[in-house]
Please model this.
Amino acid sequence: MESRNPSTNDDLQNEGRRKFFKLSAIGAGVAAAGAAGGFISYRVNGVPHDTFPVEIDDTVLTPFDQRNSVFSYAISQKLQEQYPERNTAFAEELGIPVFTFSSIMKSLISHSQPNPAAWDNNTLGYRQIDWALCHAAVGPLDRYLAPKSKFGSPATGEHTWDQLNLATEKWQFSSPEDASQHIKRAACLFGADRVGITHNDPRWNYSPIFDPITSTEYSWDDDFPFVPKTVIVLAFEMDYEAIRTAPSAVSAASVNNEYTEMSLVAGQLADFIRRLGYKAVASGNDLGNNVAYSIAAGLGEGARNGTLIVPNFGSRVRTAKIYTDLDVVEYDKPRSFGIMEFCENCKRCAEQCPSDAISMDDKPSMAPTYPGSDRIDIAWHGQKGIKKFYNDAKKCFKYWGDNGIGCVICIKACPWNKPDFWHHRLIDASNTVTSGFVHKLMTEADILFGYGNMEVEKAVEKFWVSDKEK
Model:
């Protein structure tokens, strides 16, 4: 992604440099890490693994029932009618008299309309022009690319299960490496920022698949059009300056724009593969767990806030995937980048979360630990048996309703979320080989530099006065 207005970026870069070199203790730590030379380069590129790099308890872990997804549940009137006790139990947990998921959806829908009642033209980030940007960014997705795919609705638009344009003759790649190279090059041409390829893994697939719009359940054996063997994962960078405006409508515009782009690109790549004679289905938030597949494909690591962190982009990414029966392809290995160790010592996203939805635990766990997580009527959505930080998605989603739009404050606050300046890459490099005390220093330095805590109105002003370089 190109940088913003040169004057804006230069000022920010020079300020960052000055503050960076004033922190002599941190500078010494970075220099010491730099002395490791080739080892740092090795760690920055990630330590490869032959198996999934996160500890898993296969006696507990089962495929995720999509009916338990907070997003699918929130737009399914049938599910809400089936489990009315969930609203009551969650209201009790929050200490409020009434809670309904349908009320959150009504709030989100009302703000998606060109309705003056939803505008606050006296507040930067929530004005008519900010809301216009937010919803124009997602317009093509909702109209025809893949309606409701953000909430997990399968087989819509570009995510069709129909094997359109399937060639009757299969293109013969010269080798698995050749297949991987051509697929990745096509994906980058279409617009993906990162590409990884991994095996289809039933542990990361929703089962059953659920359409929250029609309340239809699908199985992989009886309903999916083929037996998938490979999953191609695509990562898309979200705009840095827009994310800095979180939780305003401008930050949501960046999220929406990548949802639109990822649906288009995934659809194009699926069409490309079908035209080579192999079956393929594009997928956004439907069909399976994007973070798990991204980790398996070597794109990054899971973070404390539940998102994927990709080196150079941080958690400022959205991901899509393509399921295909093409299996003569070189698979990427999952890699560790030192991100989880950093998350253990940082907690910046949890401290900034307005709904207290993100875990403050010192270490990841194999099951949820947040209050009420032992009650099935409240904590129905967790996929236990994976060593990670478990967060309360319902508290997060409630804030969406309060805000009238998504949030992404946790992404804004993350120290890995930076523009691509050389001194940020140097810090990223040191993060891979240091731990504990130095990680805490890096977090404090991030706050000192002014990243991740810019006031919303100031960030909105900066966003609207900057231009892409031509």
About this structure: The chain has two domains: 6-47+418-465, 101-353+405-411. The beta strands are 47-48, 194-199, 209-211, 216-218, 230-237, 280-283, 301-302, 308-309, 317-324, 335-336.
